[in-house]
Design brief:
Length: 306
């Protein structure tokens, strides 16, 4: 039976994402994003489901850095999950009692306005996951008074909901990805996204523009670009790119090989169906047929047919 690791414990948004992405899979909860990915790498699970970015805070740094630096894994699917946060405490507590609140950093950021307004004196502490925070608060003698997590996590760990819908925006969406060990990507669907990480060869004027040009001249539309520090000092960065299309598409393949030529290194992170089902607008001269026709023409002129 297919087994997938996820950011646990039970009751995380990652679990909700996994249940939608692979309802039939056996679920292996992991203590944090790194542990879920390691379970997939080591073969304890067939893959993993982890959050990649959300619509307020942007990229989930641990996921982005793990995918860029640790043993390679491939993204095979994505899911956009609307998330809603609740303030959860042990029975008997009231909002006025909350002095220490705990949650995943992405949840704390997305509830920043609520915390500032309703819990101005509370200290906010990070946990590896929202449900992990709820589990911690439920422990007798826990130093934390409340957790921010999904309502269902509160039900699971015997907490009461002091407030619901406490996110600063009601339309927050988190993008989750399913990963597997390296393998050929899923077949193109016509509505696909490709992800990769590119490392600069050296720091020089226009280095980022050189990378962007590889996409631009082939009509490849970017959907996300994010810089992350390499860890080698202030001012040293690598870049995450998401873009429309599949590695099997000529324009995408050409852009990715172009990047490989101008960068120190490129790590392919996968081509997979887009959750929103949108199809790319193919610009004039960048369809597969155009690339085929052009390489046929080049072969002919090289063969002397001018
Ligand atoms: O901690 C969780 O439940 C997660 O799945 C990570 C997360 C945290 C906050 C918003 C979306 C996802």
């Amino acid at each position: 039976m297919l087994k997938l690791a996820y950011l646990g414990p039970e009751g995380t948004f990652a679990e909700e994402a996994l249940r939608i992405l692979a309802p039939e899979a056996e679920r292996l909860p992991s203590a944090n994003v790194g542990a879920a990915l390691d379970a997939a790498r080591r073969g304890e699970a067939d893959g993993a489901v982890v959050p990649l970015e959300n619509s307020i805070e942007g990229g989930i740094a641990t996921t982005l850095d793990e995918l860029a630096r640790s043993e390679p894994l491939l993204i095979t699917a994505e899911l956009l999950l609307p998330v809603e946060f609740s303030l959860l405490a042990r029975p008997g507590k009231e909002i006025g009692d909350i002095k220490r609140v705990i949650s995943h950093p992405a949840a704390l950021t997305q509830c920043r306005g609520y915390i500032a307004r309703e819990l101005p004196d509370a200290v906010a502490v990070s946990a590896p996951s929202t449900a992990g925070a709820a589990q911690e608060v439920a422990l007798p003698g826990s130093p934390y008074d409340a957790a921010i997590a999904a309502r269902i996590a509160g039900e699971h760990y015997g907490l009461v909901e002091l407030a619901g819908g406490i996110g600063d925006r009601s339309d927050t969406v988190t993008r989750f990805v399913r990963l597997s060990r390296p393998a050929p990507p899923p077949a193109p669907t016509g509505s696909d996204r490709t992800s990769l990480v590119a490392f600069l060869s050296d720091d020089h004027p226009g280095a980022l523009l050189e990378m962007l040009t590889e996409f631009s001249v082939r009509g490849v539309n970017l959907t996300r670009i994010e810089s992350r520090p390499t860890g080698d000092g202030i001012g040293r960065y690598f870049f995450h790119f998401d873009f429309e299309g599949h590695i099997a598409d000529a324009r995408v393949g050409e852009a990715v090989s172009g990047l490989h030529r101008v960068c120190e290194g490129v790590r392919f992170l996968g081509s997979y169906p887009r959750a929103d089902g949108l199809a790319p607008q193919i610009r004039r001269g960048t369809a597969d047929a155009d690339f085929d026709e052009a390489s046929g023409w080049l072969a002919r002129i090289r063969g002397g047919q001018v």
